[in-house]
Write a structure and sequence with these properties.
226 residues, mainly alpha, single chain
């Protein structure tokens, strides 16, 4: 899945190379690679990790073994949430690095220069990590509530594919969707000067998703312990 995510910036570079437009530079490649539906491959590793965290382990019987060991609900939540955060970070870094290398070698830094391009790319990497972590914690809560990992995978696929379409048809719903307002953040990254309003708003939303997901997981684990 990470290889597929890394291939997206390469394909975006080939599509942008030689063509006119405002995105024919390394930062533009990154923006295209993070846009829907290209971001599908970006989020899939996270979806699989969340599905395996509780639902798949319960089916294999390994989760019961963890619960019988001296691992409390809080420590188990921390372990699973760390795996989700690591998957989010790794996915974001792979896509950003591939976009910078492929776009930088073929298209160059464009009007932004190397320093500004790297700075904005790092900001995007941190932002994407936060967005994916928020989505991942919600999926982790679902994984703790169901017994079939396919349910978590299907929900994750819907969040990555159907949610952007819903946000387009129903703009008011974008505020509560994990991928809502992504296009606004990506457009703001290429603006001069950069507009950080949408990035901050979506980061707060992702943090809320993460807290809510963690709280649900902790509640479910505590209730079952009781």
């Amino acid at each position: 899945m990470l290889a597929a995510a890394a291939a997206v910036p390469v394909l975006a570079t080939l599509a942008l190379a030689g063509g006119p437009g405002d995105l024919t530079h390394a930062l533009g490649v990154l923006v295209v690679a993070l846009s829907e539906p290209a971001a599908f491959s970006l989020g899939m590793p996270l979806v699989l990790v969340a599905a395996d965290a509780f639902a798949a382990e319960r089916g294999r019987g390994t989760l019961d073994g963890l619960r019988l060991s001296p691992v409390g609900p809080g420590r188990l939540l921390l372990l699973k949430a760390s795996a989700v955060a690591c998957a989010a970070t790794l996915s974001a870094l792979v896509v950003v690095a591939a976009a910078l290398v492929a776009g930088g070698l073929v298209l160059g830094a464009g009007p932004y220069g190397t320093g500004v391009t790297l700075g904005r790319a790092l900001v995007l990497a941190a932002w994407v990590t936060g967005q994916l972590t928020g989505l991942g914690l919600l999926l982790l809560a679902l994984s703790a509530a169901v017994r079939r990992p396919a349910v978590v995978v299907a929900t994750g696929l819907a969040a990555l594919t159907a949610a952007p379409l819903v946000a387009t048809v129903l703009p008011d719903a974008a505020a509560v969707l994990p991928s809502g307002h992504w296009h606004e953040v990506l457009a703001a990254v290429t603006a001069v000067p950069a507009d950080t309003g949408a990035a901050w708003a979506t980061t707060v939303r992702a943090a809320g998703f993460a807290v809510a997901g963690a709280g649900i997981v902790l509640f479910l684990l505590t209730r079952r312990d009781g």
